[in-house]
Design goal:
The chain is α/β, with parallel strands linked by helices. It has nine helices and 13 strands. Helix content is 29%, strand content 21%. Strand 4 and strand 5 (69-73) form a beta hairpin.
């Protein structure tokens, strides 16, 4: 096992963010009309202990405060970078406090803002080996079920790679990389232990498990057997993760939007605490994959 050791402003509107960053090549808006559905303004919130949400209504960006600096998880789309950095300031932090940026998947909706955030903070970006390859190109490869329909985004150089089960330490916090391929070959989820006083929780920031693809991609096609096998392995592994609090890259994929609404109304008991969340998340998307394959084989879905 390898260890890596390294020592009230309102959120601007989506339109204002896009306008302000239009001349910066790293924050130039990507598909702004489509992406706007993800960028519902949302105040930052501390979920438990040293873990915060600093993203948006349809895109989670995680923040972990450690004794040696901050860790961000994901970077949303490029036009969201100003909003993320505003959220850090609202919480009393500086963007230069960020030491690592962890990537869940190399798609523009989660990785598009990483290059700008890394530039502004000086942080090291961390991903799976396959994820780092795509981040370095700024566009998906042919093994991605959505290849050909996703917009390119600013490439990220010098990515630190971790394998499944390897750990990253920053100060008093240890993060474990959890390979969760399927949605992309490079998808990675992240787990750690998070304490608020004497109350400690097993935290999971989960990558997408959604078996979505272009119309021409067939999950029942023998050519894509490796992707289906990767999904099966991921579902099994994800269901057995130590998991008290699950946050996913798209909040509505795991009911996180509902939990956050309840949390804002009352934090006791904490609605995010759900030991069955990881099992339910894996089961939901395994069921969708099974249904997709069944439709393909019956001829009621395009291959």
């Amino acid at each position: 096992m390898k260890w890596m050791v390294f020592g009230g402003v309102a959120l601007a509107s989506v339109a204002a963010m896009a306008s302000a960053q239009a001349d910066d090549p790293l924050t130039r808006p990507i598909e702004p009309d489509y992406a706007a559905r993800w960028l519902t303004p949302q105040e930052p919130v501390r979920v438990h202990g040293n873990f915060y949400l600093v993203g948006f209504g349809g895109l989670n960006v995680g923040l972990i405060r450690t004794s040696a600096g901050l860790i961000l998880i994901d970077g949303a789309v490029p036009q969201a970078v100003a909003g993320i950095e505003d959220h850090l300031r609202q919480l009393g932090f500086k963007v230069t406090d960020v030491k690592f940026i962890l990537s869940t998947e190399p798609h523009y909706d989660h990785a598009g803002g990483i290059a700008a955030l890394a530039r502004d903070s000086g942080a090291k970006v961390v991903a799976s080996r396959a994820g780092a390859q795509v981040l370095g190109l700024g566009q998906s490869l042919a093994d991605d079920p959505q290849f050909g329909q996703l917009a390119p985004y600013p490439a990220v150089a010098g990515v630190l790679t971790l394998e499944d089960g390897e750990k990253l330490r920053l100060g008093d916090t240890v993060i474990t990389a959890r390979a969760t391929p399927g949605h992309t070959a490079g998808s990675m989820s992240w787990t750690w232990r998070n304490c608020a006083g004497s109350t400690c929780r097993n935290m999971v920031f989960g990558a997408s498990l959604n078996p979505v693809s272009t119309e021409s991609w067939g999950f029942s096609d023998p050519k894509h057997a490796a992707t289906v096998a990767a999904f099966r392995k991921t579902f099994k592994a994800f269901a057995t993760l130590p998991c008290d609090i699950l946050v996913t890259s798209h909040p509505d994929a795991s009911g996180g939007d509902v939990k956050l609404a309840k949390f804002r109304a009352s934090q006791t008991p904490n609605p995010f605490v759900d030991p069955g969340a990881c099992r339910a998340y894996a089961a939901k998307y395994e069921g969708l994959l099974d249904a997709r394959i069944a439709r393909e084989r019956s001829g009621t879905a395009k291959p």
